[in-house]
Amino acid sequence: MAFQPEKEITPAELAARMKRGEPVYILDVREPLEWAEGHIQGAKHIPLGQLPERHVELDSKEEVIVICRSGGRSSLACELLGERGYNVVNMIGGMMAWQDEVE
Length: 103
Prior knowledge:
By secondary structure, this protein is an alpha/beta fold. The chain has helices spanning 11-19, 32-37, 51-54, 72-83, 94-97, and strands at residues 7-9, 25-28, 44-45, 63-67, 87-91.
């Protein structure tokens, strides 16, 4: 099955959805040190290198919004997960473009 072009969301769109109280399922694929520097509240952390083994920890029935530092690794994660049947959305610009609160 060929990977379909990924969907994208801007940081502002994601923040707006969160502020409206919409349920969002966020996957952060950055490295542990990056995660420790700050992450979006409620995000699940699985570094990109661990994703091939740990993707089963994700809910395949949910839309998964994937984030990284700048959008590159999350794009790769979207491809990997998309090939496995997940409904994925790449947050463009990554945490560098995130203007809202972090934990």
